[in-house]
Amino acid sequence: MTDSRYLKRTILKEEIQSRHLGESRTLRIYLPPGYNELLSYPVVYCQDGEEFFNFGRIATFANELILDDNIEPFIIVGVEVNTKIRTQEYAPFGSRFAAYTACFAEEIIPYVEQKYPVRRTRDQRILAGDSLGGSVSMHIALLYPEMFSRIISLSGAYYEESRTIIAAEKDLSALDVFMIVGLQERDFQSDTGVYDFVELNRATRDLLLERGATVRYAEKDGKHLWGFWQKELPDALKYFLQ
Question: Out of the domains of life, which is the source (predicted)?
């Protein structure tokens, strides 16, 4: 039975107007137990924000880690997405990719940093995402290397276009990436085709290592579903926040 302390979560909803996207975007903000505006906090920025909170149970895990595992308190920002146009925003070949990545780095980050006491160095900002959310997190870090260097990639959708972009980089020694993929993800049907996610992630791991990145990589039994990723989230968070 879940300890009731873990369920006492402070989650706020914010809405920002994006000039890049030409529309508003909803953010979910988790504040840790004992939150104090006079302190400063590491921050985890999640793509697919609604799913990270609802299916990933990230706020409950955060409470557990902070209350029981002596993890330093941290803030979580979940950036919501319209699933109908998710590929257009998250994939590098998508029509809204440039606008979304610019919105993320140039509008969402400044908004959060103006309103909440989050730390403003790249080693204290963690990007997190599943599938295309993992790969767009990688692209945001490559586009804004002065802002981001830490990535949680859960079964990242590293399609050919993404691997080509990574391969063009020469020095990724500043990057630190937590990568996990499920062994039952070898024939995943996406909206753009059928992919072997194990091979996509192995190839991407190798590209990153060849360019000097630090990669914590694992393959485990699991499908391309939140039932798999949810179990891996606590370790992913501890990897960067312990």
Answer: Bacteria
